[in-house]
Amino acid sequence: MRISEPYYPTSTAEILTLIRANPEIQILAGGTEIVGSQTTRALEFPAQVASIAKVQELRKTIRTEQFIELGCCTTLTGLLSLTPGTLPDPLPEIIDSIANHAIRNVATIGGNLCCRSRFMDLWPYLACMDAQVELKTPSGTRWASVSHLCGEEGKPSFPRMALLSRVRIPLYSYNFIFHRKLGLGQFPGRETASFVCIANIERGKIEDFRLAFAGVQAFRLKDREMSIAGKKTSSASKEVQAIIDDYMSAFESQDWFDRRLFLSLLEEAFERLFS
After folding, report:
1. Does any domain span residue 25?
2. Which CATH number fits the domain that encloses residue 256?
3. Cα separation of 154 and 240, whole Å?
4. What percent of the chain has pLDDT over 90?
5. C-alpha angle 264/266/269, rounded to 5°?
6. Taking Cα atoms as reference points, which of 257, 98, 262, 266 lies closest to residue 188?
7. Count of domains in the chain?
8. Residue 189 covered by a domain
9. Is pLDDT above 70 for 42?
10. Which of 21, 23, 114, 148 has the most other CB atoms within 10 Å of its CB?
11. Structural domain containing residue 216
C-alpha cells in the first residue's frame, strides 16, 4: 500500500507554495472523486495531497446584482442551503440531483469543475451561463470562462499547477429551461451525462439560445446556437428538423455516448422550444 504525505494549508498563499514545490501534488476538498473512482475498501491517495476544505477564504459567498461568487470549497449542500432565489434556476434542481445528501455534504463546487477524467453535472449548465472561474497559479491569477476547462477535442483540460479558487455565476434568468441527467449511480461513469438547453423567448422569438451536453466528453455548437437565436418559436417543422439534423450530423463524430439517447433529448428539447 502506498503511503501518502498529507498537507493542511490554511491559506491560498500556502496552497500555491505547495504547488510550486511539488507540481504533481493532489489538491482536494471533499475527496469524493477519489473515493468514487476506487472499488476497494482500502483507499489509495497520491503520494502527496493537500486538503483545502477548511481554508476559510475559499468558502466565502458574495452576491451582487449581477452575479453570485462562490468559494471553491463551498459544498453542494451549502449551495442548497442559501436563501431561496439566491441561485439562478435551474441550478438548485441540478445540484439536488447529484448523488445523495451524504455526498453533497462534502462534495464542493470546485471539485465538481476540476475533475480531469470527465465533466461532472454542473459543467454543462455553468458553461451555458458563461460562468467564470478564478485560477490561481504560482505565477499569477486570472479569470477564465468555465468553457475554457474544455479542450479542443472536447475533453477536460484543467490547467496544470492551478488552483480553482472562485466561481462567478451571472444572475441572468432564462425563461426556457430544459435539462436532463442520464444514467444511474451516485458517482458519474461512462454511461452518465447531462443535457442542458436554455433560451430566452420574447414575443414568440428566440432571443438567446444555449445547448450543452457533457459526460466523459463535452459537446456544444456555439455557431449553431447563434443561428438559432432570432428564429420564431412558430417556425415550420421542416426548419426545426433541419436544426436537429445539423446537431446529429455533428454528433456523428462523438463515440462516447449513445447517439439514440442524444437524439431523443434533442427532439424533446426542440419540441418544447418550438411549440
Report:
1. no
2. 3.30.390.50
3. 26
4. 85
5. 110
6. 98
7. 1
8. yes
9. no
10. 114
11. 176-273
